[in-house]
Amino acid sequence: MLQDASPITVPEGASAMTIHVEWEPGDPGTPPHRHSGPAFGYVVEGAVRFELEGEPERVIEAGGTFWEPGGDAIHYQDGNALADARTRFVVTMLCAPGRPMLELVDEAELARRAHLRAPRPTT
To answer: How many CA atoms lie less than 13 Å away from 16 in the CB half-sphere?
Structure first.
């Protein structure tokens, strides 16, 4: 078994899509966003910097999995954690009918919800 996630909520009438994502070295990935339903991913090559609202940032290396509940939760990071190599992952997302698969979160909402973000790593 590669991944076990529970509980999950699947929007009624959801559709599913699986996509292959490829980030060049150092690519920051998609800006903060959310999905209308849960998403399940597998890192094929490289390493993904992954951060969900309320959880600390982490790096998922090739062979690792991730999931997010979708709905209201903000997905802050999904970029390439490597400065010198490509990263590829596959993700299957369940999408609520009539909603986009991915919705960007604006700066005003990020500011309103800043208290829900896990503390940032210090260097």
So the answer is: 8
Report d(CA 97, CA 120) in Å as an integer: 34
Taking the CA atoms of 42, 33, 49 and 10 in sequence, report the sign of the dihedral they define: negative
CA atoms of 70 and 33, how far apart (whole Å):
10
**Ordered per-residue pLDDT tens for the chain, 123 residues:** 888 888 888 878 999 999 999 999 999 999 999 999 999 999 999 999 999 999 999 999 999 999 999 999 999 999 999 999 999 999 999 999 999 889 999 999 999 999 999 998 776
Owner of token pair 């909603």: 99
Are 101 and 17 in contact by the 8 Å Cβ rule? The answer is yes
> How far does Cα 77 stand from its chain's mean position?
6
The answer for residues whose C-beta is within 8 angstroms of residue 109's C-beta and 6 or more apart is: 74
pTM of the model: 0.89
Cβ atoms of 28 and 81 within 8 Å: the answer is no
